[in-house]
């Protein structure tokens, strides 16, 4: 069982490698991608079944790699990384169903490489290993946007790469300095997360090193001010890339703040907390205003995603029970909602060759099943009661009010603003007069319904019965908060 995380990480890329060198046909490539993703899903279900919510880091595997510099293959899973792992292994088979008719082999190879990159990043406990996977997941996104995108896709692909590399380099310099500091303190090298978390750094050094990590994570989320790549990249990307960007990669910025911000720089995060809170609150308002003004559906939901990710970042930095519980729950539910809506937008574009609201309208009259799923995922983005987003947003808002009345008030605006732009959009696209592009609109096929149904059912389950899911994450949240209070002198 100790090697199970290794199988989960590397099975997709190994499948792609062997299919590639064997010159597999498109049919076998499809089968190999689906089979490898389902195998990873089964292995992850085994991990979930054997996971103890109160057990801390589990399924740990450490293999020395570059021993002279203390770099090792060090992986493990706790409640935080398990949530991200389950999202990845659930969404990838759904994306393969979406691209089932895709004829370009590069699509399939890049998707398998991407799965290995994002999975390795959330399971890595050696910071050099984390950095390598962090960079690995950028390459297939760059290729998919730069080769299979639309509009100014080459420019937008280069922009997202350059901005991400800027953040990655700043993080890499911080990682190297941490390793050297450990060597200076102990006489041996190590880049293991648990070793570096015990380092005693000077105040100024800690502030600058934390800034290197936080810049990388702020760009990935992105927080307002680091967002200029977001809407253009979402608009130019093929649908699978948009889903990965919104549902997984943006959430890894949240994961990074949680794992490394608190794990390596807990004291220093107090220094940056007011700044992050400011950027998060600004993002809530800034992105929501842009979403209200957009006519392009992808750009509108890109800004919507930015607003909600800002709320998640706020919950993480507030560091109380409601904020942390709501933030981690919202990571999962927002990933499901955004995956659903961007898949629906992709299906809409396939049918109409347009995602501009001005040429759409009246879908409910000609395609009721399509209208139902589109409206459901849109309303789940708006966090209506009965969906998981409502539970998560409510918890974060309560946590914000617990911290400050004014922060809670601004956080609550997220719900109000989302309702405004979502209902405006639904009125134009679903219930408006029949648009010029809707004349021969086809309803959802059986394959498309089966692809979307798991997302819908999970959003309903997380909204109606959160008590089924919260016990998975609450023990770690409680123990982490107790540790945090002790570190801050709260006891």
What is the secondary structure topology, with strand pairs?
Blueprint: H1 4-21, H2 26-50, E1 58-66, E2 71-77, H3 79-98, H4 105-123, H5 127-136, H6 138-148, H7 153-186, H8 193-196, H9 203-220, H10 230-236, H11 239-293, H12 297-318, H13 321-352, H14 363-366, H15 368-381, H16 388-403, H17 405-429, H18 446-464, H19 470-487
Helix pairs in contact: 1-2, 1-4, 2-3, 2-4, 3-4, 3-11, 3-13, 3-18, 4-5, 4-6, 4-11, 5-7, 6-7, 7-9, 7-10, 9-11, 10-12, 11-12, 11-13, 11-17, 12-13, 12-16, 12-17, 13-15, 13-16, 13-18, 13-19, 15-17, 16-17, 16-18
Descriptive labels:
491 residues; mainly alpha; 19 helices
Care to describe what's here?
- It is built from 19 helices and two strands.
- With 491 residues, the protein is mainly alpha-helical.
- It has one domain.
- The radius of gyration is 22 Å and the shape is globular.
- The two termini are 39 Å apart.
Mean pLDDT: 90
C-alpha termini separation: 39 Å
Strands ordered across the widest β-sheet: 1-2
SSE ordering:
HHEEHHHHHHHHHHHHHHHHH
The backbone outline, from C-alpha atoms, is globular
Number of helices: 19
Total count of domains: 1
- Classify the beta-strand content into a percent band: under 5%
Return Rg in Å.
22 Å
DSSP helix fraction: over 70%
């Amino acid at each position: 069982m100790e090697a199970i995380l290794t199988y989960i990480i590397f099975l997709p890329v190994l499948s792609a490698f062997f299919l590639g060198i064997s010159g597999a046909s498109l049919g076998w490539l499809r089968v190999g991608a689906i089979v490898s993703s389902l195998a990873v899903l089964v292995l992850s279900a085994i991990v979930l079944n054997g996971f103890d919510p109160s057990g801390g880091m589990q399924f740990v595997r450490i293999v020395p790699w570059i021993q002279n510099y203390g770099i090792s293959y060090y992986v493990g899973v706790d409640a935080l990384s398990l949530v991200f792992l389950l999202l990845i292994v659930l969404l990838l088979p759904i994306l393969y169903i979406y691209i089932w008719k895709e004829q370009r082999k590069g699509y399939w190879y890049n998707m398998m490489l991407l799965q290995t990159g994002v999975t390795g990043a959330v399971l890595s406990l050696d910071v050099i290993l984390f950095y390598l996977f962090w960079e690995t997941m950028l390459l297939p996104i760059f290729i998919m946007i730069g080769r299979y995108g639309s509009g100014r896709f080459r420019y937008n692909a280069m922009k997202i790469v350059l901005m991400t590399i800027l953040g990655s380099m700043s993080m890499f310099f911080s990682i190297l300095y941490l390793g050297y500091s450990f060597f200076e303190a102990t006489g041996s090298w190590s880049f293991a997360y648990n070793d570096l978390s015990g380092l005693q750094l000077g105040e100024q050094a800690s502030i600058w090193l934390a800034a290197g990590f936080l810049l990388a994570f702020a760009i990935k989320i992105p927080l307002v001010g680091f967002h200029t790549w977001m809407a253009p990249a979402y608009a130019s990307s093929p649908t699978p890339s948009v889903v990965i960007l919104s549902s997984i990669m943006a959430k890894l910025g949240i994961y990074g703040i949680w794992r490394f911000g608190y794990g390596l720089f807990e004291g220093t995060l107090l220094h940056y907390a007011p700044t992050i809170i400011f950027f998060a609150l600004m993002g809530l308002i800034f992105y929501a205003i842009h979403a209200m003004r957009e006519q392009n559906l992808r750009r509108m939901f890109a800004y919507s995603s930015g607003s909600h990710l800002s709320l998640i970042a706020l919950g993480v930095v507030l560091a109380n029970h409601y904020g942390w519980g709501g933030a981690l729950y919202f990571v999962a539910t927002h990933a499901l909602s955004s995956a659903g809506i961007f898949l629906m937008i992709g299906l809409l574009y396939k049918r109409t060759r347009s995602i501009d609201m001005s040429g759409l309208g009246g879908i409910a009259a000609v395609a009721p099943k399509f209208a139902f799923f589109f409206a459901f995922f849109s309303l789940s983005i708006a966090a209506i009661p009965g969906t998981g987003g409502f539970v998560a947003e409510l918890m974060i808002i309560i946590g914000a009010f617990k911290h400050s009345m004014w922060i809670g008030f601004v956080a609550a605006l997220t719900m109000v603003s989302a309702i405004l732009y979502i209902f405006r959009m639904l009125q134009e696209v679903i219930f408006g007069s029949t648009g010029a592009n809707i004349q021969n609109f086809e309803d959802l096929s059986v394959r498309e319904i089966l692809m979307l149904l798991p997302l819908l059912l999970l959003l309903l389950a997380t909204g109606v019965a959160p008590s089924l899911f919260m016990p998975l994450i609450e023990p770690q949240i409680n123990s982490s908060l107790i540790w945090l209070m002790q570190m801050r002198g709260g006891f």
